[in-house]
Automatic annotation (TrEMBL):
<protein>
    <submittedName>
        <fullName>NADPH-dependent F420 reductase</fullName>
    </submittedName>
</protein>
<feature type="domain" description="Pyrroline-5-carboxylate reductase catalytic N-terminal">
    <location>
        <begin position="2"/>
        <end position="86"/>
    </location>
</feature>
<dbReference type="InterPro" id="IPR051267">
    <property type="entry name" value="STEAP_metalloreductase"/>
</dbReference>
<dbReference type="InterPro" id="IPR036291">
    <property type="entry name" value="NAD(P)-bd_dom_sf"/>
</dbReference>
<dbReference type="Pfam" id="PF03807">
    <property type="entry name" value="F420_oxidored"/>
</dbReference>
<dbReference type="InterPro" id="IPR028939">
    <property type="entry name" value="P5C_Rdtase_cat_N"/>
</dbReference>
<keyword id="KW-0560">Oxidoreductase</keyword>
Length: 193
């Protein structure tokens, strides 16, 4: 698969390091950081437009405030856009829904937003001997692509419905992140016997 990593921070680095069997391209705002991450991953550095043109899937690991200006000028027809962003405390329209508006000819999936960046560096991400479950909300074709990428990490894909359900993942992230920042174990609310 040809994957473009939009962003050069922790999420792009962590997830990109797990997807090196694929053809990776890195794009970012800083040429130096873009080149450094591309070198780290054995990938190619490219402009946003060039990376998008050659990608099958694009990981959106940039600040949510940058998404509209970044996505609207690009030709994203037929691309799968993977939204791993979180905006804790945000209200209003979910980020994933806004992405679908900015790129109406692309397929969008909300994924990889519920775990800390360090979890994505685990090979595989196991907790108490069980693989991490990764909820996926989006169009069927986008969920299929994300399913493959979750399996690449050693996780368990959890298809959770259409893009209309992405708001639930964003709200769950806000709740879990708030609990973690308060020093509480958010995992305990999801444990079963």
């Amino acid at each position: 698969m040809r994957i473009a990593l939009f962003g050069t921070g922790g999420m792009a680095s962590a997830l990109g390091s797990q997807w090196t069997r694929h053809d990776l391209t890195v794009s970012g705002r800083s040429p130096a950081r873009t080149a450094a991450l591309a070198t780290e991953l054995g990938a190619e550095a490219a402009s946003w437009a060039d990376a998008a043109a050659r990608a099958d899937a694009i990981l959106l690991a940039v600040p949510t405030t940058a998404l509209e200006a970044l996505l609207t000028p690009l030709d994203l027809a037929g691309k799968v856009l993977i939204d791993c962003t979180n905006t804790p405390g945000a209200t209003g329209e979910p980020v994933a829904a806004r992405i679908a508006e900015y790129a109406p000819r692309a397929s969008v999936v909300k994924a990889f937003n519920l775990a800390h960046v360090d979890v994505w560096r685990m090979t595989p991400p196991l907790f108490e001997g069980r693989p991490l479950g990764v909820p996926l909300c989006g169009t069927p074709d986008a969920v299929a692509v994300a399913t493959e990428l979750v399996r690449d990490l050693g996780g368990t894909p959890l298809p959770a419905g259409g893009l209309d359900r992405a708001a639930l993942l964003e709200a769950a992230a806000g709740l879990a992140i708030g609990l973690w920042f308060d020093g509480l174990d958010a995992r305990s609310m999801l444990m079963s016997a």
